[in-house]
Write the structure tokens for this entry.
Amino acid sequence: MVEFEPAIKSLTAKEVDFVIIGGVAISVHSTGYVTRDLDFCYLQTTENLKRIVSAFAHFNPRLRGFPEDLPFIWDERTLQSGTNFTLKTTIGDIDLLGEVAGVGDYQAVKKESIIARLYDCDVRVLTLEGLIKAKRAAGRTKDLLVLPELEALREMLSETDEE
């Protein structure tokens, strides 16, 4: 399980351009969802990559699912060499995504986000509609299982807005 608070506070302190997606975003919209990692979409500019490296350096990020002795250098150049990174850190699993299936790149994801207050930080979080698009496009069993709950929540909120 990720220690969300230090991760989110570090990202905001370093002024990283990011949008929280996945389970943490779901929990913002629905209190009953539990997640084991932090997923976020990030802006892929040189400056933002430097900020991400700085934000997570003290959490000793490593590639998740790879041998511990595999050389891995956590720097801007590494982040420039890919789009998505699944990391194991001292505070838990963190996934960095340059694009989100069903939604698009960072700019598209940002347009599908709202501002939420988490751990005394204002952060961007994927909207309920954006989450539904992303979960449907991902198509994994765990994503498809949460879709009915998200769609029911959307329906409930829609009915509340109409009143």
